[in-house]
Design goal:
Number of helices of chain B: 13
CATH class of the largest domain in chain A: Alpha Beta
Distance between the termini of chain A: 84 Å
Distance between the termini of chain B: 20 Å
Largest interface: B-C, 95 and 100 residues
Helix content of chain B: over 70%
Largest sheet of chain A: 6 strands, mixed
Chains: A alpha/beta (about 425), B mainly alpha (about 290), C mainly alpha (about 280)
Shape of chain B: flat
Mean pLDDT of chain A: 89
CATH architecture of chain B: Orthogonal Bundle
Shape of chain A: globular
Largest sheet of chain B: 2 strands, antiparallel
CATH superfamily of the largest domain in chain A: Periplasmic binding protein-like II
Order of helices and strands of chain B: HEEHHHHHHHHHHHH
CATH superfamily of chain B: MetI-like
Number of domains of chain B: 1
Radius of gyration of chain A: 25 Å
Number of domains of chain A: 2
CATH architecture of the largest domain in chain A: 3-Layer(aba) Sandwich
Helix content of chain A: 40-55%
Oligomer: heterotrimer
Strand order of the largest sheet of chain B: 1-2
Number of strands of chain A: 11
Low-confidence stretches of chain A: 17-25
Chain lengths: ~425, ~290, ~280
């Protein structure tokens, strides 16, 4: 009898034990997810970061899908193969384009991680929609990158970069540099740099006015109303482009440059300035004996009280998004964990700050940024001296730079006048579906 | 032809021909037909449903002047590349089958650019054009050479043709070498003993024997030039200001930058029809000549 | 009067010059693999100041060279075997048998050589990835690479077969040899030169393939050498020097293969047999 009772008890205990164990595994059933990153060139570091994640969340296994330089094609390929990555680091324009397939991050179990995000969530929202489809991954600033070492040599150690706040003062600044024997600037001629960063981001930015004004301009262009040639802002930024062209060290052969070559000129004081942004650190840090670098505003008008002349351009170009199209709810939940961890954990922040050299729009950043350009961006961000260019990044057609960049190249090479340029841009918009 | 009939023939077809046919059908024919289907739809690249829009993509393609421009450009590029690469390839083939010391070494060395693949070579050439030739031009103060070829529309096209021919000619050389090797030595010797000049030996003895090689090479060169992608992407990326954007690059960009997949498929179908037509024409004429020989 | 000897000398000099022309970019590549990216950017044509050998171990590790090499080898060898075998068999039928069925599909295959890869790239992924469920595997890459080369293989080998006299087949058949044995023991050995040519092409294509592999191989462990070269490319920058080192390392196996095959091409097996 006793034996039987003991056996029964044992069996009962085992059963209990089993259910207890089962309950525990059910709470954290093993799940395998995948991560696709458009942050190319740092695969091993990404894998190491993901490993740290898996140690903290042992029931989640993350497969890493690196991208090539054809980022979108590879990402779409994964979808077409029924293999959609659970979490993807994508451009905000793509996230909004493909938001139908992505998780609305405001509807997840615990969206409190957004409390740490200072700015940028609005870039992952559609017009008139409360859903948020991405967590900002970085904040990037750009305008006139400047070699401080050279400027200090020419104008003295206490030169005030904020004093260059009108177009005339910019010209005087360039003249001063040239008089001292330093070529003033280099115009980087890649189609994406001219099309997206100089033209697109400046044209559809807070320079023009508030979001509504920017959207209105884009809508007018799409309706075929054209008239860009009469747009004051467009003319301002092309006037300044004329100045950059005039002082361009590559004036004789403006399209024969490369990104690495231009950056080398800037890094070693062979030119004093270059219009580009803090992401160029990935190239710059490979040079030895770097000069002191920073970003300064590029003034577009002659009104020194115009606050816009004291601001640089900036936005959150990329975000982490979670797929809901080909991933199970369990995978999506794990994906949300990974996305917020990548953005906001000390490890994730360290990756973005120390390795990539990005500024982060979060309130809990402790990692120290070695990228002097990102330090500049952070300074302007803290002082609220940023002209947001998210309208271009999020809402312009994805091929704007591909089509309009070459027009800018033709303009740079002196093969197209401004009226034709304005007309071609207008035609591009009018011809969209 | 073998004079076998009936079941035996079919058995041979079944065992020898059908495996290749099956592989080809499942990897080319069926996907291609599926691609034609996509060209009649509007599709975002992900969705499992396609919205049928009939011929709208084709209409749009035919209406777009930039498509025709790109096609024209591709045709010009093809003519240039096919001519240069075949002439050079033929000369290389001839040179490297003559009794030359170290010809093995030369063949191997000259072919090497093809081992590396287009993308990497395009990048290296970009540096040579942008920094190498310009430096030579500046130091010799030749104005036309001191600016980069890649920043002028006409010269950039020429540079693209040169680099493509540089690579393709070495590729074609192999086929020509194989062709010339097949020309029996006794035949050439006999002609020489009969007092034929080097030119006559080449034209009347060697050339007729390598006609099949020429057919293959022309065909290959046309197809490869019309579909050039790697070198186009890495050497000029379509620039300066779109003056060297060939059709394959345009198709790729339409799909993966503009996200117009139906439109891109329609362009691809048009491209296919054109290349197929040229090839059939070319094969027809060359084969006719072969028969006449 | 030009002597044949002086012609030979001139031809030799011409060959040397041409070789320099064809090799120059590669020498540049090898040279820059021994510099830092910074030095490279400043002057791609300068000789290395000091030999920076670190690029090689860096590239070796960053590319996961051994596993990538292994994957590339499998893909290349498998594609070559399949294309060589099925392609030559089919070419034999096309060359020797008069059949409407065969010639109909043969011309179809030829025409398909004109189809741009972009035209069926997405459908391929849908068919093999989504419908048949091949993901992160070399199998679909091998199979599709075989298919993409099939038309060319049949075309190339057929041309060669047409120059082999039918009498050889007939003699063998009279001797009581079956068609299958006839092909494998008599015809196939005679095809050696063209097969080597074909295999060199197929191998080069497979070895350098990026686009197709990138559609099916997702994780790092499954990737091939050309895919791993991209680890040095970032969105806005390229790390050139280790990339050059990586390129040098990834073309070396192909070069060795090519050097070995040269001898085969040279041996001129056909010369004796065709004209018999």
């Amino acid at each position: 009898m006793l034996k039987k009772l003991t056996a029964l008890l044992l069996a009962l205990m085992m059963l209990l034990g089993c259910t207890a164990a089962f309950a525990e595994t059910e709470e954290h059933a093993p799940v395998t997810i995948s991560y696709y990153s458009t942050q190319a060139g740092v695969d091993d570091e990404t894998v190491a970061t993901l490993k740290a994640f898996m140690e903290q969340y042992p029931w989640i296994t993350v497969n890493y899908y690196p991208c090539g330089d054809d980022q979108l094609a590879a990402w779409l390929g994964l979808y077409n193969g029924g293999n959609a990555p659970t979490v993807a680091l994508l451009d905000c324009g793509q996230i909004l384009n493909y938001s139908d397939y992505l998780v609305d991050l405001t509807q997840v179990e615990d969206p409190s991680f957004f409390d740490h995000v200072l700015s940028g969530t609005q870039f992952f929202q559609k017009e008139g929609d409360t859903a948020i489809y991405g967590i900002p991954a970085s904040y990037q600033g750009f305008s006139l990158m400047v070699n401080k070492t050279v400027v200090k040599k020419v104008f003295g150690d206490d030169f005030d970069f904020d004093s260059v706040n009108t177009v005339d003062k910019l010209v005087a600044f360039f003249d001063g540099l040239e008089a001292a024997g330093y070529p003033a600037t280099v115009v980087f001629s890649a189609d994406w740099a001219l099309g997206a960063h100089y033209l697109g981001c400046q044209l559809f930015s807070e320079w023009l006015g508030d979001k509504e004004t920017q959207r209105q301009l884009m809508a007018d262009l799409k309706d075929g109303k054209g008239g860009l040639i009469d747009n004051e802002h467009f003319n301002n930024l092309m006037d300044v482009f004329d100045i950059l062209m005039k002082y361009n060290i590559n004036k004789a052969d403006p399209l024969a440059d490369t990104q690495e070559g231009d950056l080398e000129l800037l890094a070693h004081g062979k030119v004093a300035t270059m219009f580009q942004g803090d992401w160029n650190w990935l190239v710059l840090h490979t040079f030895e004996n770097l000069d002191e670098l920073a970003i300064m505003p590029l003034p577009l008008t002659n009104d020194e009280n115009d606050p816009r002349n004291a601001k640089i351009l900036g936005s959150c170009p990329k975000g982490y998004a979670v797929d809901k199209f080909q991933n199970t709810p369990e995978q999506q939940a794990a994906g949300v964990l990974l996305a917020q961890w990548l953005a906001l954990s000390p490890e994730g922040e360290d990756f973005m700050v120390s390795l990539i050299g990005s500024t982060l729009p979060f309130d809990n950043v402790t990692a120290v940024n070695e990228n002097p350009l990102a330090v500049s961006t952070q300074k302007f961000l803290n002082e609220e001296r940023i002209l947001d260019c998210s309208t271009y990044l999020c809402e312009a057609p994805s091929d704007f730079w591909l089509v309009c960049g070459p027009f800018m190249q033709a303009y740079l090479a002196g093969q197209m006048d401004r009226a034709t340029l304005a007309e071609e841009i207008g035609e591009y918009f009018a011809d969209l579906d | 032809m073998l004079t076998k009939r009936g079941w035996d023939t079919w058995k041979l077809i079944l065992i020898f021909f059908c495996p290749a046919l099956f592989i080809w059908m499942t990897t080319m024919l069926i996907p291609f037909l599926y691609g034609i289907f996509i060209s009649f739809t509007k599709w975002d690249g992900i969705s499992t449903t396609f919205s049928w829009i009939g011929l709208a993509n084709y209409e749009k393609v035919f209406r777009t002047s930039k498509f025709w421009l790109s096609l024209q450009r591709t045709a010009m590029y093809t003519i240039g590349t096919v001519l240069i690469s075949n002439v050079v390839g033929l000369i290389l083939g001839l040179l490297l089958t003559s009794a030359l010391k170290g010809r093995n070494f030369f063949r191997t060395a000259i072919y090497v650019p093809n081992v590396v693949g287009g993308v990497a070579m395009g990048y290296v050439w970009q540096y040579i054009f942008n920094y190498g030739f310009t430096k030579i031009g500046q130091s010799l103060s030749i104005a036309s050479m001191s600016t980069s070829m890649l920043s002028d529309p006409v010269k950039a096209m020429f540079a693209l043709i040169l680099v493509s021919s540089w690579q393709l000619s070495a590729y074609l050389m192999i086929i020509y070498v194989a062709g010339f090797t097949n020309v029996p030595g006794e035949l050439v010797e006999a002609a020489r003993v009969d007092g034929a000049t080097a030119w006559r030996v080449f034209w009347h003895v060697r050339m007729p024997m390598i006609r099949p090689s020429i057919t293959i090479c022309l065909f290959l060169a046309i197809v490869r030039s019309f579909m050039v992608f790697d070198i186009n992407l890495s050497l000029t990326d379509g620039g300066p200001f779109n003056s060297t954007e060939m059709i394959a690059l345009r198709i790729y960009n339409t799909a993966y930058v503009s996200l117009k997949f139906g439109n891109a498929q329609a362009q691809a179908v048009v491209l296919f029809v054109i290349v197929a037509f040229i090839s059939v024409l070319q094969a027809y004429f060359t084969q006719k000549k072969e028969v006449q020989m | 009067m030009v002597t044949r000897r002086s012609v030979k000398v001139w031809l030799f000099i011409l060959a040397v010059l041409l070789t320099i022309l064809y090799l120059f970019p590669l020498v540049l590549m090898a040279m820059n693999s021994l510099k830092t990216t910074g030095e490279f950017t400043m002057n791609p044509f300068s000789l290395p100041v000091r030999l920076v050998t670190e690029n090689y171990p860096q590239a070796f590790n960053q590319m996961h060279f051994l596993s990538a090499l292994f994957n590339s080898l499998i893909l290349t060898v498998a594609a070559c075997l399949l294309v060589g075998l099925f392609g030559s068999m089919a070419a034999y039928v096309v060359s020797r048998i008069k059949s409407r069925f065969v010639s109909f599909f043969y011309y179809f295959m030829i025409a398909s050589m004109c189809a741009p890869f972009q035209a069926f790239m997405i459908p391929l992924v849908k068919l093999y990835g989504a419908w048949l469920g091949f993901n992160n595997s070399l199998l679909p890459v091998i199979y599709i690479a075989t298919g993409l080369n099939m038309a060319f293989a049949v075309f190339l080998v057929r041309g060669f077969l047409n120059s082999i006299p039918l009498e050889i087949d007939q003699a063998a058949l009279i001797d009581g040899c079956g068609s299958i044995r006839l092909f494998f023991s008599i015809i196939l050995p005679m095809l050696t030169p063209i097969m080597v040519t074909l295999l060199v092409f197929v191998a080069m294509g497979a070895w350098n393939d990026y686009l197709l592999s990138s559609l099916f191989l997702q994780t790092q462990e499954m990737r091939t050498l050309p895919m791993m070269i991209r680890v040095f490319c970032a969105q806005y920058s390229n790390d050139y020097s280790p990339m050059m080192a990586g390129l040098v390392m990834s073309i070396t196996p192909m070069l060795i293969f090519y050097l070995l095959c040269q001898k085969q091409i040279l041996s001129g097996v056909v010369q004796g047999s065709v004209k018999g």
